[in-house]
Write a structure and sequence with these properties.
It contains twelve helices and no strands. The chain is an all-alpha fold.
């Protein structure tokens, strides 16, 4: 999981740097295209087995949700400091908890509702509406978090019948033709150097997904997921060293609230699942 966060953070830094040269939508397309290089060896090992599924429609829905999330986040990274974007992206597990209530009829007690409210309050602390102007980039990060949460819900549904290999294979394959549509609208022929950088982006992105999927398979969620918050450390370091961005006090305060909320939600879900007690007790 730690390696996954490093890959994601390096990817996000490359997106921020490359967005001065190419449109984020084009970067998203090439990230998806070159990301297939990580998936292709599976076909050598397993043949066509990863493509066997009876839920192609649901795979397509997940890919569509992922494309909207990726386009939103890629564009946001071109206009929002790395630390701020990373801080707001941590609202994704909070959105996921809320959506799980409706999709899986999961019962959420008072403690987790309080944690959810603290998390969303943390997002408002970062945004400071009424004090600072809320930017389009910040709203796009929240859009990313919401659609990524929907994608996680669909992934959980697919996981009941599909293997991790099949899920990642289909999302990788389907995101390419979907993301090419917005890319064509802003197309600019990249140079060989730019293609090389985007090749690295594709490998980093898909590797990060694979590492995270394997981490969740090897360890319990409540143990593994807190390491996701180390992305804030890498984002601050990269933002400072590469882009001379220094996060303000409100970003740190907000991210502390968001991370505390997400961490407690994950911990509480584990306690309830293991002990079998009702959430309110």
């Amino acid at each position: 999981m730690l390696l996954s966060t490093i890959c994601y953070s390096l990817l996000h830094a490359l997106i921020r740097g490359m967005s001065n040269e190419l449109h984020p939508f084009e970067l998203a397309f090439f990230r998806n295209l070159f990301g297939l290089l990580v998936v292709l060896p599976w076909f050598i090992r397993y043949g066509l087995a990863p493509l066997r599924t009876s839920r192609l429609g649901l795979h397509a829905v997940r890919a569509g949700l992922n494309v909207i999330a990726v386009l939103s986040y890629f564009y946001a990274l071109s206009v929002v400091p790395l630390a701020d974007a990373t801080a707001l992206s941590f609202t994704a597990p909070i959105f996921t908890t809320v959506l799980a209530i409706f999709f899986f009829r999961e019962f959420v007690g008072v403690r987790r509702w309080i944690a959810i409210l603290i998390g969303f309050t943390g997002a408002f602390v970062v945004l400071r509406p009424g004090i600072e102007s809320v930017t389009v980039g910040q709203l796009l990060v929240l859009t990313y978090a919401l659609f990524f949460a929907f994608a996680l819900i669909v992934t959980k549904i697919l996981g009941q019948t599909e293997s991790s290999v099949t899920i990642i294979t289909y999302v990788s394959l389907l995101m390419v033709p979907i993301s090419v549509i917005p890319a064509v609208l802003v197309w600019q022929t990249p140079s060989l150097v730019q293609i090389g950088v985007m090749l690295i982006m594709g490998i980093l992105g898909t590797s990060a997904q694979l590492l995270m999927t394997q981490a969740l398979k090897e360890g319990e969620t409540h143990v593994v997921m807190p390491f996701d918050f180390t992305k804030m450390i890498w984002a601050v370091l990269l933002g400072l060293l590469v882009f001379q961005e220094i996060p303000g006090i409100y970003t740190w305060l907000g991210v502390a609230m968001i991370i505390s909320s997400a961490f407690y939600i994950g911990y509480r879900e584990h306690v309830v699942r293991v002990s079998g007690i009702e959430d309110g007790k």
